[in-house]
Amino acid sequence: MLGALSQVTAGVTFGGTVRTGVNCFFGIKSSVMPNRTIGDNVQIMAGSLIVSDVESNVVMGGNPGRLVRRL
């Protein structure tokens, strides 16, 4: 379920049940593993693999996805 005002770019992959908050951005070719929850105001950098739940107001990047900075 994609939250309001969220943007999904080309090549993004969502596994199974992924819940996203409001105002999220998913960079090109990023992936989210099944059964994950993404908080509000989250930015996922291009090519990132998200393997765990993500708190609100952060930028995540890398493989596996790690906290890059807080917003």
Provide an overview of this structure.
The structure is a single chain. It contains no helices and ten strands. It is mainly beta. β9 and β10 form a beta hairpin. The chain is globular and about 25 Å long. It starts with 6 loop residues before the first strand and ends with a strand.
- Element order, helices and strands? EEEEEEEEEE
Described by its quaternary structure, the protein is single chain
Sketch the major β-sheet.
Answer: 5 strands, mixed
Distance between the termini: 23 Å
Shape: globular
Q: How many DSSP helices? A: 0
Helical residue percent band: under 10%
Report the radius of gyration as a whole number of Å: 10 Å
**Arithmetic mean of pLDDT:** 96
In spatial order, strands of the major sheet run 1-4-7-9-10
Structural class: mainly beta
Measured by DSSP, the beta-strand proportion falls in 35-45%
Number of strands: 10
Uncertain segments: none
Identify the notable features of this structure and list them briefly:
single chain; 71 residues; mainly beta; 5-stranded mixed beta sheet; 3-stranded parallel beta sheet; globular
In short:
The protein has 71 residues and is mainly β. It is built from no helices and ten strands. It has strands at 7-8, 13-14, 18-20, 25-26, 31-32, 36-38, 43-44, 49-50, 58-61, 66-70.
